[in-house]
Amino acid sequence: MNKCVERVYNGIIKENPTFILMLGMCPTLAVTTSAINGLGMGLSTTAVLIFSNLIIAALRHIIPDRVRIPAFIVIVATLVTIVQLLIQGFVPSLYSALGIYIPLIVVNCIILGRAESYAAKNDAVSSAFDGLGMGLGFTLSLTCIGIVREFISAGAFFGMEITPEDFHISIFGLAPGAFFVLAGLSALQNKFKLPSATNGDAPKSELACGGDCMHCSGSLCASNHAVLEAKRAEEMEKAAAAKKAAAEKAAAAKKAAAEKAAAEAAGNKGQE
Length: 272
Known about the structure:
By secondary structure, the protein is mainly α. The protein is built from 9 helices and 2 strands; from the N terminus they run H-H-H-H-H-H-H-E-E-H-H.
């Protein structure tokens, strides 16, 4: 697969920032009261991601390592200001709906995370496509959450009312509704065993239960303690063996030095 296509696929599917990595939860939960808000925030973040990755990758050999984080923030803040002014000038209704969350894109952990982990280490073109993939993945996630919340809370789809007001559940338009929807979508993801930060895809632990804390009932607690005690005893035994070997080596070196000194003394006495 072409590297650029792979970066886009990676951001949308394999490492989706919302459903897989669980990053950027603040705007995810705050602005997804409607599908259009989620789409607008996602596309704004995508634009910032693409150009910040592009600029940071192009300047990666120029920016000193000691000041790279402040430099990244300055670049991102400049781009966010441009995006904010464009939205305010051309889409004022979206600007009013998103409010403070547009400037807060500056400190979005997705943007700084991609800048630090990918753009600062790779070429400009692949970094731009990495930003595109992550941005589209973020946009897709926010739009899906917005569609579900808008449909349940207002009975609408992208502003078009579908169900009567009597069937609306208004709590899904409030802060608790965002958690309910995110939890439901994550539960579906786990049900279908799709990769995520919550479905137990982590490498198996050395514990007796395999380290699957999400499904732990506590019944293997004694076994876990036994495994940990055995591991601790093994580590202590290895440390003691290493200490003993070091002591024996030092004693042998000391004995060899004493024998050498005695031989030299005997040789000097024989010459006299």
